[in-house]
Amino acid sequence: MDNDVSAGSGTTVVAGRLALGVTLLAFGLGTTGVIDGVGAADAVSLAHYVGGVALFLIGLLAFRDRDTVSGTGFVALGALWFTWAVSFGDHTSANGAGLFLLLFALVALTLTLAGGDGLGQVVHGLLFLAMLLLAVAVFADSSSLAKAGGWVAAVSGAAAWYAATAALAHWPTVLPRRAAGRGVTATG
User: Fold this and answer.
1) 35 CB neighbour count, 10 Å cutoff
2) 125-159 core/surface letters (b: 16 or more CB in 10 A; e: else)
3) What distance in Å separates the CA atoms of residue 36 and residue 86, rounded to the nearest whole number?
């Protein structure tokens, strides 16, 4: 196989997006409280193993396949999810938890600005917004902002799931472009 071609990166991107999507869906829906009796604490094990360990390992596989962008993203997000899972609850102060979520948001912002495909940028952009809302919610002790952040995290998870599923099922991942209006034709 040609060393310039990153054949495994497609597989690692799909696996990474599935792991991130499932983690964000569980975390986001748990944070919203929309499902009776399910809270963010119920996402801790999933975040620990799927969002943390699996995502970190997928990132290492992406590095092995010379996909440094996906590798960096998945390793960083895996480390953050692992850290969130092991520190959830009474292990940190409220301000410490808010600071952690703010740092999580900054990593997501970096991944958004790093580029890549449109769906990946949407996923990371929504993840940034979710973590920013959750950080502000912790600092302001606002359950309304926390629920809003949970919903944004769930939407980010749904987008990550869709991006992974679309790659496997050959679904569309971009909206078709069309001319600006009726009767508009290209000159040339």
Assistant:
1) 10
2) bbbbbbbbbbbbbbbeeeeebbbbbbbbbbbbbbb
3) 24
